[in-house]
Amino acid sequence: MLDAFYPQHKAAATWFEQHVNQPVRIGLPWPSLLAFLRIVTNPRIYASPLGIDDAWAQVEEWLALPNIWIPFPTDQHATVLGQLLQDTQANANLVPDAHLAALAIEHGLEVCTTDTDFARFSGCRWRNPLQVAS
């Protein structure tokens, strides 16, 4: 993978690679996979971004792992998402975060992210995987 300008990129990439190779079930929603593709192919972020073929090959490699699955919205998605959007008065970048939080709530998942905005969503379990537990 590429080194990003994000100061915690190396730690985040290491954490992710360690966890996708564990025998624990990990949900990778399409919005997260698409965000990966958007970022790693972006010439405004990288001097030498990945081509879409290489980036897509990485996604396919993750999806081929036996412990990786894609969480899809359930029949309750509109209700859960609508409540999160209204409770937080979400706008702009908080809207796709609310979608991910709704997926996590519906499937009983924990969101692993450095984005503290997820604390706004009632019922969404989340943690920063780069914070050392005290």
TrEMBL record:
Record-annotated PIN domain positions: 10-121
Cofactor(s) of this protein: Mg(2+)
Enzyme Commission code(s) on record: 3.1.-.-
Taxonomy, superkingdom: Bacteria
Keywords for this protein: Hydrolase, Magnesium, Metal-binding, Nuclease, Toxin, Toxin-antitoxin system
A Gene Ontology biological process term: negative regulation of growth
Classification via InterPro entries: Mtu_PIN, PIN-like_dom_sf, PIN_dom, VapC_family
Pfam families: PIN
Amino-acid positions noted as binding Mg(2+) in the UniProt annotation, renumbered to this chain: D97
UniProt GO MF annotations: hydrolase activity, acting on ester bonds; magnesium ion binding; RNA nuclease activity; toxin activity
SUPFAM superfamilies on file: PIN domain-like
Function: Toxic component of a toxin-antitoxin (TA) system. An RNase.
Family per record: Belongs to the PINc/VapC protein family.
UniProt name for this protein: Ribonuclease VapC
Organism: Leptothoe spongobia TAU-MAC 1115
